[in-house]
Write a structure and sequence with these properties.
The structure is a single chain. It contains seven helices and nine strands, in the order αβαββαβαβαβαβββα. It has about 280 residues and is α/β, with parallel strands linked by helices. Helix 4 runs parallel beside helix 5. The longest helix is centred in the N-terminal third of the chain and has 40 residues.
Length: about 280
Protein backbone atom coordinates (compact mmCIF):
# COMPACT_ATOMS: atom_id res chain seq x y z
CA UNK A 1 0.00 0.00 0.00
CA UNK A 2 2.81 2.40 0.88
CA UNK A 3 4.50 1.75 -2.48
CA UNK A 4 1.23 2.41 -4.34
CA UNK A 5 0.70 5.62 -2.44
CA UNK A 6 4.27 6.71 -3.17
CA UNK A 7 3.82 6.02 -6.89
CA UNK A 8 0.56 7.96 -6.85
CA UNK A 9 2.22 10.94 -5.21
CA UNK A 10 5.13 10.78 -7.66
CA UNK A 11 2.72 10.71 -10.59
CA UNK A 12 0.81 13.67 -9.19
CA UNK A 13 4.03 15.60 -8.69
CA UNK A 14 5.05 14.93 -12.30
CA UNK A 15 1.67 16.13 -13.55
CA UNK A 16 1.91 19.31 -11.46
CA UNK A 17 5.47 19.89 -12.71
CA UNK A 18 4.35 19.44 -16.31
CA UNK A 19 1.49 21.90 -15.81
CA UNK A 20 3.85 24.45 -14.27
CA UNK A 21 6.28 24.07 -17.19
CA UNK A 22 3.46 24.54 -19.70
CA UNK A 23 2.22 27.62 -17.84
CA UNK A 24 5.74 29.04 -17.79
CA UNK A 25 6.05 28.56 -21.56
CA UNK A 26 2.65 30.16 -22.13
CA UNK A 27 3.61 33.13 -19.95
CA UNK A 28 6.92 33.54 -21.81
CA UNK A 29 5.21 33.41 -25.21
CA UNK A 30 2.53 35.83 -24.01
CA UNK A 31 5.17 38.28 -22.88
CA UNK A 32 7.29 38.07 -26.02
CA UNK A 33 4.36 38.18 -28.44
CA UNK A 34 1.99 40.23 -26.33
CA UNK A 35 3.22 42.53 -23.59
CA UNK A 36 6.64 43.11 -25.14
CA UNK A 37 5.04 43.89 -28.49
CA UNK A 38 2.58 46.22 -26.76
CA UNK A 39 5.37 48.10 -24.98
CA UNK A 40 7.28 48.53 -28.21
CA UNK A 41 4.40 49.95 -30.23
CA UNK A 42 1.70 51.22 -27.90
CA UNK A 43 3.22 52.26 -24.58
CA UNK A 44 3.83 55.88 -25.46
CA UNK A 45 1.85 59.10 -25.09
CA UNK A 46 -0.65 59.86 -27.85
CA UNK A 47 1.16 61.86 -30.47
CA UNK A 48 0.10 65.43 -31.21
CA UNK A 49 0.07 65.79 -35.00
CA UNK A 50 0.52 68.93 -37.08
CA UNK A 51 -2.85 69.27 -38.84
CA UNK A 52 -1.59 72.30 -40.75
CA UNK A 53 1.10 70.13 -42.33
CA UNK A 54 -1.19 67.10 -42.65
CA UNK A 55 -4.75 68.42 -43.10
CA UNK A 56 -6.28 65.22 -44.56
CA UNK A 57 -7.39 62.97 -41.71
CA UNK A 58 -9.00 59.55 -41.84
CA UNK A 59 -9.86 56.47 -39.80
CA UNK A 60 -9.76 52.72 -40.20
CA UNK A 61 -12.47 50.53 -38.71
CA UNK A 62 -13.73 46.97 -38.49
CA UNK A 63 -16.54 45.04 -36.84
CA UNK A 64 -14.80 45.70 -33.51
CA UNK A 65 -16.15 49.27 -33.61
CA UNK A 66 -19.71 47.95 -33.65
CA UNK A 67 -22.43 50.16 -35.11
CA UNK A 68 -21.03 53.42 -36.46
CA UNK A 69 -23.12 56.54 -36.98
CA UNK A 70 -21.55 57.67 -40.26
CA UNK A 71 -23.70 60.78 -40.42
CA UNK A 72 -22.12 62.05 -37.20
CA UNK A 73 -18.65 60.83 -38.26
CA UNK A 74 -18.97 62.81 -41.50
CA UNK A 75 -19.71 65.99 -39.58
CA UNK A 76 -16.26 65.81 -38.03
CA UNK A 77 -12.84 66.19 -39.60
CA UNK A 78 -12.84 62.76 -41.28
CA UNK A 79 -12.07 62.80 -45.00
CA UNK A 80 -11.53 59.08 -45.61
CA UNK A 81 -12.10 55.70 -44.00
CA UNK A 82 -10.52 52.30 -44.54
CA UNK A 83 -12.75 49.34 -43.64
CA UNK A 84 -11.59 45.85 -42.80
CA UNK A 85 -12.82 43.63 -45.60
CA UNK A 86 -11.26 40.18 -45.44
CA UNK A 87 -8.60 38.06 -43.76
CA UNK A 88 -6.75 34.99 -44.90
CA UNK A 89 -8.44 32.64 -47.35
CA UNK A 90 -12.09 32.94 -46.38
CA UNK A 91 -12.82 35.39 -43.53
CA UNK A 92 -15.08 38.37 -44.29
CA UNK A 93 -15.69 41.21 -41.82
CA UNK A 94 -19.39 41.22 -40.97
CA UNK A 95 -19.62 45.04 -40.99
CA UNK A 96 -17.86 45.54 -44.33
CA UNK A 97 -20.81 46.14 -46.64
CA UNK A 98 -22.75 48.28 -44.19
CA UNK A 99 -19.72 50.44 -43.37
CA UNK A 100 -18.88 50.95 -47.06
CA UNK A 101 -22.45 51.84 -48.03
CA UNK A 102 -23.17 54.16 -45.10
CA UNK A 103 -19.84 56.00 -45.35
CA UNK A 104 -20.34 56.61 -49.09
CA UNK A 105 -23.79 58.03 -48.42
CA UNK A 106 -22.10 60.70 -46.28
CA UNK A 107 -19.44 61.48 -48.93
CA UNK A 108 -16.63 59.93 -46.91
CA UNK A 109 -14.03 58.55 -49.32
CA UNK A 110 -13.64 54.83 -48.65
CA UNK A 111 -11.13 52.03 -49.00
CA UNK A 112 -11.00 48.42 -47.82
CA UNK A 113 -8.17 46.30 -46.45
CA UNK A 114 -7.27 42.62 -46.33
CA UNK A 115 -5.39 41.21 -43.33
CA UNK A 116 -2.65 39.04 -44.82
CA UNK A 117 -1.96 35.64 -43.26
CA UNK A 118 1.63 34.46 -43.65
CA UNK A 119 0.56 30.79 -43.76
CA UNK A 120 -1.92 31.18 -46.63
CA UNK A 121 -1.38 31.33 -50.38
CA UNK A 122 -1.21 34.95 -51.58
CA UNK A 123 -3.32 34.45 -54.67
CA UNK A 124 -6.04 32.65 -52.70
CA UNK A 125 -6.14 35.55 -50.21
CA UNK A 126 -6.43 38.08 -53.04
CA UNK A 127 -9.36 36.16 -54.47
CA UNK A 128 -11.11 36.25 -51.11
CA UNK A 129 -10.82 40.04 -51.20
CA UNK A 130 -11.88 40.32 -54.85
CA UNK A 131 -14.94 38.16 -54.22
CA UNK A 132 -16.16 40.47 -51.46
CA UNK A 133 -14.98 43.99 -52.36
CA UNK A 134 -16.23 46.20 -55.17
CA UNK A 135 -14.23 49.39 -55.70
CA UNK A 136 -14.91 52.29 -58.05
CA UNK A 137 -12.43 54.77 -59.50
CA UNK A 138 -13.53 57.19 -56.77
CA UNK A 139 -12.48 54.82 -54.00
CA UNK A 140 -9.05 54.34 -52.50
CA UNK A 141 -6.98 51.48 -53.97
CA UNK A 142 -7.18 48.05 -52.30
CA UNK A 143 -5.03 47.63 -49.19
CA UNK A 144 -3.02 44.65 -47.94
CA UNK A 145 -2.54 44.77 -44.16
CA UNK A 146 0.84 43.04 -43.86
CA UNK A 147 2.24 42.78 -40.35
CA UNK A 148 4.24 40.24 -38.36
CA UNK A 149 1.75 40.36 -35.51
CA UNK A 150 -1.04 38.26 -34.02
CA UNK A 151 -0.95 34.75 -35.54
CA UNK A 152 1.76 35.80 -37.99
CA UNK A 153 4.22 35.97 -35.07
CA UNK A 154 3.69 32.41 -33.87
CA UNK A 155 6.11 30.86 -36.35
CA UNK A 156 9.46 31.86 -37.79
CA UNK A 157 8.36 32.01 -41.43
CA UNK A 158 10.92 31.97 -44.22
CA UNK A 159 11.43 35.55 -45.39
CA UNK A 160 11.55 34.77 -49.11
CA UNK A 161 8.45 32.58 -48.89
CA UNK A 162 6.43 35.32 -47.16
CA UNK A 163 7.63 37.96 -49.62
CA UNK A 164 6.68 35.75 -52.57
CA UNK A 165 3.19 35.15 -51.18
CA UNK A 166 2.73 38.88 -50.61
CA UNK A 167 3.84 39.59 -54.17
CA UNK A 168 1.35 37.03 -55.52
CA UNK A 169 -1.41 38.75 -53.56
CA UNK A 170 -0.44 42.23 -54.73
CA UNK A 171 -0.21 41.19 -58.38
CA UNK A 172 -3.57 39.43 -58.30
CA UNK A 173 -5.22 42.52 -56.81
CA UNK A 174 -3.57 44.80 -59.36
CA UNK A 175 -4.68 42.53 -62.19
CA UNK A 176 -8.30 42.74 -61.04
CA UNK A 177 -8.58 46.39 -59.90
CA UNK A 178 -6.13 47.91 -62.38
CA UNK A 179 -4.09 49.81 -59.79
CA UNK A 180 -1.24 49.19 -57.37
CA UNK A 181 -2.55 48.14 -53.95
CA UNK A 182 -1.48 50.01 -50.82
CA UNK A 183 0.70 48.13 -48.33
CA UNK A 184 -0.11 48.75 -44.66
CA UNK A 185 2.58 47.69 -42.21
CA UNK A 186 4.36 48.62 -39.00
CA UNK A 187 8.02 49.58 -38.58
CA UNK A 188 9.21 46.15 -37.44
CA UNK A 189 7.61 44.36 -40.38
CA UNK A 190 8.71 47.05 -42.82
CA UNK A 191 12.35 46.66 -41.80
CA UNK A 192 12.22 42.87 -42.03
CA UNK A 193 10.18 42.31 -45.21
CA UNK A 194 9.41 45.54 -47.10
CA UNK A 195 12.50 47.76 -47.02
CA UNK A 196 14.23 47.67 -50.40
CA UNK A 197 11.30 45.77 -51.94
CA UNK A 198 7.82 46.62 -53.23
CA UNK A 199 8.79 50.25 -53.88
CA UNK A 200 6.10 50.65 -56.55
CA UNK A 201 3.31 50.12 -54.00
CA UNK A 202 2.06 53.07 -51.90
CA UNK A 203 2.99 52.73 -48.24
CA UNK A 204 0.69 53.13 -45.25
CA UNK A 205 2.93 53.02 -42.20
CA UNK A 206 1.96 52.48 -38.58
CA UNK A 207 4.24 54.53 -36.32
CA UNK A 208 2.67 55.51 -33.05
CA UNK A 209 5.22 57.26 -30.89
CA UNK A 210 6.71 59.73 -33.35
CA UNK A 211 6.47 60.87 -36.94
CA UNK A 212 7.88 58.57 -39.66
CA UNK A 213 11.19 59.67 -41.13
CA UNK A 214 11.51 60.54 -44.81
CA UNK A 215 13.12 57.14 -45.40
CA UNK A 216 9.68 55.51 -45.39
CA UNK A 217 8.27 57.54 -48.32
CA UNK A 218 4.80 57.06 -46.91
CA UNK A 219 1.44 58.05 -48.37
CA UNK A 220 -0.59 57.29 -45.25
CA UNK A 221 0.46 57.35 -41.60
CA UNK A 222 -1.41 55.62 -38.79
CA UNK A 223 -0.39 57.63 -35.75
CA UNK A 224 -2.61 56.28 -32.95
CA UNK A 225 -4.92 53.40 -32.02
CA UNK A 226 -6.58 55.51 -29.35
CA UNK A 227 -8.33 58.18 -31.37
CA UNK A 228 -11.75 59.52 -30.50
CA UNK A 229 -14.33 60.34 -33.17
CA UNK A 230 -17.94 61.39 -32.61
CA UNK A 231 -20.24 58.67 -33.94
CA UNK A 232 -17.92 55.82 -32.91
CA UNK A 233 -17.96 54.26 -29.45
CA UNK A 234 -14.55 53.60 -27.94
CA UNK A 235 -11.14 54.03 -29.49
CA UNK A 236 -10.51 54.17 -33.23
CA UNK A 237 -7.34 54.17 -35.35
CA UNK A 238 -6.43 57.58 -36.77
CA UNK A 239 -4.55 58.24 -39.99
CA UNK A 240 -3.15 61.11 -42.06
CA UNK A 241 -2.45 61.53 -45.75
CA UNK A 242 0.95 62.93 -46.68
CA UNK A 243 -0.18 66.03 -48.56
CA UNK A 244 -2.97 68.51 -49.16
CA UNK A 245 -6.56 67.59 -49.92
CA UNK A 246 -6.09 68.33 -53.62
CA UNK A 247 -3.03 66.04 -53.62
CA UNK A 248 -5.10 63.38 -51.86
CA UNK A 249 -7.79 63.57 -54.52
CA UNK A 250 -5.17 63.45 -57.25
CA UNK A 251 -3.60 60.37 -55.63
CA UNK A 252 -6.89 58.51 -55.98
CA UNK A 253 -7.42 59.79 -59.50
CA UNK A 254 -3.94 58.85 -60.76
CA UNK A 255 -3.91 55.51 -58.91
CA UNK A 256 -6.71 54.38 -61.20
CA UNK A 257 -4.83 55.51 -64.31
CA UNK A 258 -6.95 58.61 -64.93
CA UNK A 259 -4.25 61.28 -64.97
CA UNK A 260 -4.83 62.62 -68.46
CA UNK A 261 -5.28 66.29 -69.23
CA UNK A 262 -8.27 65.61 -71.44
CA UNK A 263 -10.12 63.63 -68.76
CA UNK A 264 -13.29 65.27 -67.41
CA UNK A 265 -12.67 66.64 -63.92
CA UNK A 266 -16.23 66.15 -62.63
CA UNK A 267 -15.65 62.44 -62.09
CA UNK A 268 -12.95 63.05 -59.50
CA UNK A 269 -13.88 62.23 -55.90
CA UNK A 270 -14.93 65.26 -53.91
CA UNK A 271 -15.53 66.04 -50.28
CA UNK A 272 -18.27 68.63 -50.07
CA UNK A 273 -17.76 69.05 -46.33
CA UNK A 274 -14.23 70.45 -46.82
CA UNK A 275 -14.20 72.34 -50.15
CA UNK A 276 -11.55 74.73 -48.82
CA UNK A 277 -8.99 71.94 -48.82
CA UNK A 278 -8.54 72.15 -52.58
CA UNK A 279 -6.60 75.31 -51.83
CA UNK A 280 -4.32 73.64 -49.27
CA UNK A 281 -0.57 73.55 -49.69
CA UNK A 282 0.68 72.06 -52.93
Amino acid sequence: MAKKRKNKLTKRALIISAILIILSVVCAVTYVYGFDYYKKYYACPQLAVDTAQYPVMGIDVSAHQGKIDWKIVAQGNVSFAFMKATEGADFVDKKLQNNMEEAKKQNVIVGAYHFFRFNKDGKVQARNYIKNVKLSDNDLPPVVDFEASYGNRLRNYDKKYVQNQLLKCLRELKKHYGCNPIIYTNVETYNKYISGNFDEYPLWICKLCNEPTKDFKWKFWQYTHKGSVAGIKGYVDMNLYNGSYSEFVNFIYTAHGKNKQNEKQQNRPTNRRHPQRSADKT
